[in-house]
Amino acid sequence: AAAARAEGLVKIYGSGQTAVTALRNIDVSFPRGRFTAIMGPSGSGKSTLMHCLAGLDTVTSGRVYVGDVDLSKLSDKQLTQLRRDRVGFVFQQFNLLPTLTAAENITLPLSIAGRKPDQEWLRAVVDAVGLASRLSHRPAELSGGQQQRVACARALVTRPEIVFADEPTGNLDSRSGAEVLAFLQRSVREFDQTVVMVTHDPTAASFSDEVVFLADGQLVGSIPNPTAESVL
Ligand code: ADP
Ligand code: ADP
Protein backbone atom coordinates (compact mmCIF):
# COMPACT_ATOMS: atom_id res chain seq x y z
CA ALA A 1 0.00 0.00 0.00
CA ALA A 2 1.01 3.63 -0.42
CA ALA A 3 2.28 5.49 2.65
CA ALA A 4 -0.45 8.07 2.02
CA ARG A 5 -2.96 8.81 -0.70
CA ALA A 6 -5.91 10.99 -1.57
CA GLU A 7 -8.94 10.05 -3.67
CA GLY A 8 -11.20 12.71 -5.12
CA LEU A 9 -9.95 15.18 -2.55
CA VAL A 10 -11.82 18.49 -2.52
CA LYS A 11 -11.08 21.28 -0.04
CA ILE A 12 -13.20 24.41 0.09
CA TYR A 13 -12.49 27.10 2.68
CA GLY A 14 -15.44 29.13 3.88
CA SER A 15 -18.86 29.12 2.22
CA GLY A 16 -21.17 31.15 -0.01
CA GLN A 17 -19.79 34.18 -1.84
CA THR A 18 -16.45 34.06 -0.05
CA ALA A 19 -15.77 30.33 -0.52
CA VAL A 20 -12.29 29.48 -1.82
CA THR A 21 -11.79 26.14 -3.56
CA ALA A 22 -8.22 25.22 -2.62
CA LEU A 23 -8.21 21.63 -3.98
CA ARG A 24 -10.38 20.33 -6.84
CA ASN A 25 -10.67 16.57 -7.04
CA ILE A 26 -7.10 15.49 -6.33
CA ASP A 27 -6.06 11.86 -6.80
CA VAL A 28 -2.51 11.27 -5.65
CA SER A 29 -0.53 8.45 -4.09
CA PHE A 30 2.81 8.52 -2.26
CA PRO A 31 4.51 5.10 -2.47
CA ARG A 32 6.59 3.89 0.47
CA GLY A 33 10.26 4.75 0.39
CA ARG A 34 9.95 7.59 -2.08
CA PHE A 35 10.97 11.25 -1.75
CA THR A 36 8.36 13.37 -3.54
CA ALA A 37 8.53 17.13 -4.07
CA ILE A 38 5.38 19.19 -4.63
CA MET A 39 5.83 22.36 -6.66
CA GLY A 40 3.42 24.97 -7.94
CA PRO A 41 2.63 28.68 -7.77
CA SER A 42 1.77 30.40 -4.51
CA GLY A 43 -1.89 29.72 -3.69
CA SER A 44 -2.07 26.55 -5.83
CA GLY A 45 -2.97 24.41 -2.80
CA LYS A 46 0.35 22.80 -1.83
CA SER A 47 0.10 23.49 1.90
CA THR A 48 -3.58 22.60 1.96
CA LEU A 49 -2.85 19.25 0.31
CA MET A 50 -0.17 18.41 2.87
CA HIS A 51 -2.35 19.53 5.77
CA CYS A 52 -5.26 17.36 4.56
CA LEU A 53 -2.97 14.34 4.05
CA ALA A 54 -1.46 14.79 7.51
CA GLY A 55 -4.85 15.06 9.21
CA LEU A 56 -4.11 18.65 10.26
CA ASP A 57 -7.07 19.94 8.24
CA THR A 58 -10.48 18.43 7.45
CA VAL A 59 -11.48 17.69 3.86
CA THR A 60 -14.68 18.91 2.18
CA SER A 61 -15.13 15.69 0.21
CA GLY A 62 -13.13 12.71 -0.98
CA ARG A 63 -10.91 10.44 1.07
CA VAL A 64 -7.47 10.58 2.59
CA TYR A 65 -5.53 7.51 3.74
CA VAL A 66 -2.39 7.24 5.84
CA GLY A 67 -1.28 3.68 5.22
CA ASP A 68 -4.50 1.69 5.25
CA VAL A 69 -6.28 4.09 7.59
CA ASP A 70 -9.15 6.15 6.17
CA LEU A 71 -8.89 9.41 8.14
CA SER A 72 -12.64 10.09 7.77
CA LYS A 73 -13.34 7.00 9.88
CA LEU A 74 -11.38 8.28 12.87
CA SER A 75 -12.68 10.07 15.94
CA ASP A 76 -10.90 13.29 16.95
CA LYS A 77 -9.01 11.35 19.57
CA GLN A 78 -7.90 8.67 17.09
CA LEU A 79 -6.88 11.38 14.62
CA THR A 80 -4.71 13.09 17.26
CA GLN A 81 -3.12 9.73 18.00
CA LEU A 82 -2.46 9.04 14.32
CA ARG A 83 -0.85 12.46 13.82
CA ARG A 84 1.33 11.83 16.84
CA ASP A 85 2.41 8.27 16.06
CA ARG A 86 2.28 7.86 12.28
CA VAL A 87 2.92 11.26 10.72
CA GLY A 88 5.93 13.56 10.92
CA PHE A 89 5.79 17.25 10.03
CA VAL A 90 8.61 19.73 9.35
CA PHE A 91 7.75 23.44 9.17
CA GLN A 92 9.53 26.29 7.43
CA GLN A 93 10.06 28.04 10.80
CA PHE A 94 11.63 24.97 12.52
CA ASN A 95 9.17 25.22 15.47
CA LEU A 96 11.66 24.00 18.09
CA LEU A 97 11.08 24.64 21.79
CA PRO A 98 13.71 27.24 22.82
CA THR A 99 14.19 26.01 26.40
CA LEU A 100 14.88 22.40 25.41
CA THR A 101 18.19 20.99 24.18
CA ALA A 102 18.51 19.50 20.70
CA ALA A 103 18.26 16.00 22.21
CA GLU A 104 15.13 16.93 24.19
CA ASN A 105 13.56 18.53 21.11
CA ILE A 106 14.29 15.40 19.04
CA THR A 107 12.71 13.04 21.58
CA LEU A 108 9.80 15.36 22.43
CA PRO A 109 7.23 13.41 20.34
CA LEU A 110 8.14 10.27 22.30
CA SER A 111 7.90 12.08 25.65
CA ILE A 112 4.47 13.42 24.69
CA ALA A 113 3.30 9.95 23.65
CA GLY A 114 4.77 8.44 26.84
CA ARG A 115 6.97 6.18 24.75
CA LYS A 116 10.54 5.11 25.50
CA PRO A 117 13.03 5.92 22.74
CA ASP A 118 14.27 2.93 20.77
CA GLN A 119 17.97 3.65 21.48
CA GLU A 120 19.23 1.97 18.34
CA TRP A 121 16.84 3.95 16.14
CA LEU A 122 17.60 7.19 18.00
CA ARG A 123 21.33 6.71 17.46
CA ALA A 124 20.81 5.93 13.77
CA VAL A 125 18.76 9.12 13.29
CA VAL A 126 21.20 11.31 15.26
CA ASP A 127 24.17 9.86 13.33
CA ALA A 128 22.48 10.34 9.99
CA VAL A 129 21.49 13.90 10.81
CA GLY A 130 25.09 14.73 11.78
CA LEU A 131 24.29 16.36 15.14
CA ALA A 132 25.97 14.00 17.61
CA SER A 133 28.20 16.80 18.96
CA ARG A 134 25.35 19.32 19.27
CA LEU A 135 22.82 17.34 21.28
CA SER A 136 23.16 19.36 24.49
CA HIS A 137 22.84 22.72 22.71
CA ARG A 138 19.66 24.81 22.80
CA PRO A 139 18.17 26.04 19.51
CA ALA A 140 19.60 29.57 19.94
CA GLU A 141 23.10 28.04 20.00
CA LEU A 142 22.57 26.24 16.69
CA SER A 143 22.74 27.51 13.11
CA GLY A 144 19.54 27.62 11.04
CA GLY A 145 20.58 24.50 9.17
CA GLN A 146 21.31 22.66 12.42
CA GLN A 147 17.96 23.74 13.87
CA GLN A 148 16.12 22.46 10.84
CA ARG A 149 18.03 19.17 11.00
CA VAL A 150 16.90 18.84 14.63
CA ALA A 151 13.33 19.42 13.41
CA CYS A 152 13.79 16.72 10.74
CA ALA A 153 15.19 14.27 13.31
CA ARG A 154 12.21 15.06 15.57
CA ALA A 155 9.83 14.29 12.69
CA LEU A 156 11.53 10.91 12.16
CA VAL A 157 11.92 9.83 15.77
CA THR A 158 8.59 8.00 15.98
CA ARG A 159 9.36 6.11 12.71
CA PRO A 160 6.27 7.62 11.09
CA GLU A 161 4.54 6.20 8.05
CA ILE A 162 5.25 9.47 6.25
CA VAL A 163 7.06 12.77 6.83
CA PHE A 164 5.67 16.00 5.38
CA ALA A 165 7.99 18.98 5.02
CA ASP A 166 6.53 22.38 4.12
CA GLU A 167 9.28 24.56 2.56
CA PRO A 168 11.89 23.09 4.94
CA THR A 169 14.70 25.09 3.30
CA GLY A 170 12.72 28.32 2.83
CA ASN A 171 14.56 30.10 5.67
CA LEU A 172 18.01 28.67 4.97
CA ASP A 173 21.01 29.65 2.88
CA SER A 174 21.83 27.20 0.11
CA ARG A 175 24.56 25.35 2.03
CA SER A 176 22.41 24.78 5.14
CA GLY A 177 19.51 23.88 2.86
CA ALA A 178 21.62 21.25 1.13
CA GLU A 179 22.48 19.67 4.51
CA VAL A 180 18.79 19.39 5.37
CA LEU A 181 17.92 17.99 1.95
CA ALA A 182 20.77 15.48 2.09
CA PHE A 183 19.43 14.25 5.42
CA LEU A 184 15.88 13.89 4.11
CA GLN A 185 17.26 12.05 1.08
CA ARG A 186 19.38 9.79 3.29
CA SER A 187 16.35 8.99 5.47
CA VAL A 188 14.61 7.70 2.34
CA ARG A 189 17.64 5.73 1.07
CA GLU A 190 18.81 4.28 4.39
CA PHE A 191 15.63 4.00 6.44
CA ASP A 192 13.11 3.47 3.66
CA GLN A 193 11.28 6.57 4.96
CA THR A 194 8.58 8.21 2.84
CA VAL A 195 9.00 11.98 2.49
CA VAL A 196 6.75 14.57 0.82
CA MET A 197 8.18 18.08 0.57
CA VAL A 198 6.68 21.33 -0.68
CA THR A 199 9.26 23.62 -2.24
CA HIS A 200 9.58 26.62 -4.54
CA ASP A 201 13.23 25.88 -5.16
CA PRO A 202 14.20 23.72 -8.16
CA THR A 203 17.53 22.89 -6.50
CA ALA A 204 15.67 21.53 -3.47
CA ALA A 205 13.35 19.58 -5.75
CA SER A 206 16.36 18.01 -7.46
CA PHE A 207 17.02 15.99 -4.27
CA SER A 208 13.66 14.23 -4.66
CA ASP A 209 12.77 11.09 -6.65
CA GLU A 210 9.71 12.63 -8.24
CA VAL A 211 8.23 16.11 -8.63
CA VAL A 212 4.46 16.60 -8.81
CA PHE A 213 3.04 19.91 -9.95
CA LEU A 214 -0.05 21.65 -8.62
CA ALA A 215 -1.81 24.57 -10.29
CA ASP A 216 -5.05 26.17 -9.17
CA GLY A 217 -5.93 23.24 -6.87
CA GLN A 218 -5.31 20.55 -9.46
CA LEU A 219 -2.50 18.09 -10.19
CA VAL A 220 -1.15 19.08 -13.56
CA GLY A 221 1.71 16.63 -14.00
CA SER A 222 4.63 14.80 -12.51
CA ILE A 223 8.17 13.99 -13.54
CA PRO A 224 10.45 11.31 -12.14
CA ASN A 225 13.94 12.51 -11.26
CA PRO A 226 16.42 9.90 -12.50
CA THR A 227 19.38 11.95 -11.27
CA ALA A 228 18.35 12.19 -7.60
CA GLU A 229 20.64 9.29 -6.67
CA SER A 230 23.74 11.13 -7.78
CA VAL A 231 23.13 14.26 -5.69
CA LEU A 232 24.43 12.78 -2.42
P1 ADP B 1 0.09 27.15 -1.46
O1 ADP B 1 0.60 26.33 -0.33
O2 ADP B 1 0.29 26.46 -2.80
O3 ADP B 1 0.61 28.55 -1.47
P2 ADP B 1 -2.37 27.12 0.00
O4 ADP B 1 -2.72 25.70 0.19
O5 ADP B 1 -1.76 27.86 1.12
O6 ADP B 1 -1.48 27.25 -1.32
O7 ADP B 1 -3.68 27.92 -0.44
C1 ADP B 1 -4.54 27.48 -1.49
C2 ADP B 1 -5.71 28.45 -1.57
O8 ADP B 1 -6.52 28.30 -0.39
C3 ADP B 1 -5.32 29.91 -1.63
O9 ADP B 1 -6.28 30.57 -2.43
C4 ADP B 1 -5.40 30.34 -0.19
O10 ADP B 1 -5.65 31.73 -0.08
C5 ADP B 1 -6.58 29.54 0.30
N1 ADP B 1 -6.49 29.24 1.75
C6 ADP B 1 -5.51 28.54 2.37
N2 ADP B 1 -5.75 28.43 3.68
C7 ADP B 1 -6.93 29.06 3.89
C8 ADP B 1 -7.73 29.30 5.05
N3 ADP B 1 -7.37 28.83 6.25
N4 ADP B 1 -8.88 29.98 4.88
C9 ADP B 1 -9.25 30.45 3.68
N5 ADP B 1 -8.55 30.26 2.55
C10 ADP B 1 -7.40 29.57 2.65
P1 ADP C 1 1.99 29.09 2.41
O1 ADP C 1 1.79 29.50 0.98
O2 ADP C 1 3.41 28.80 2.74
O3 ADP C 1 1.01 28.08 2.87
P2 ADP C 1 0.38 31.24 3.32
O4 ADP C 1 0.83 32.60 3.70
O5 ADP C 1 -0.41 31.02 2.07
O6 ADP C 1 1.70 30.38 3.29
O7 ADP C 1 -0.46 30.61 4.52
C1 ADP C 1 -0.03 30.71 5.84
C2 ADP C 1 -1.19 30.26 6.73
O8 ADP C 1 -2.34 31.06 6.50
C3 ADP C 1 -1.64 28.82 6.45
O9 ADP C 1 -1.97 28.20 7.67
C4 ADP C 1 -2.86 28.96 5.58
O10 ADP C 1 -3.75 27.89 5.78
C5 ADP C 1 -3.43 30.27 6.06
N1 ADP C 1 -4.09 31.00 4.96
C6 ADP C 1 -3.64 31.13 3.69
N2 ADP C 1 -4.48 31.84 2.94
C7 ADP C 1 -5.49 32.19 3.76
C8 ADP C 1 -6.70 32.93 3.60
N3 ADP C 1 -7.05 33.46 2.42
N4 ADP C 1 -7.50 33.09 4.66
C9 ADP C 1 -7.17 32.57 5.85
N5 ADP C 1 -6.06 31.84 6.07
C10 ADP C 1 -5.23 31.67 5.04
UniProtKB/TrEMBL annotation:
Name the UniProt record assigns to this protein: ABC transporter ATP-binding protein
Annotated organism of origin: Protofrankia coriariae
Swiss-Prot/TrEMBL keywords: ATP-binding, Nucleotide-binding, Transport
Residues annotated as domain ABC transporter: 4-232
Organism lineage: Bacteria, Bacillati, Actinomycetota, Actinomycetes, Frankiales
GO molecular function list: ATP binding
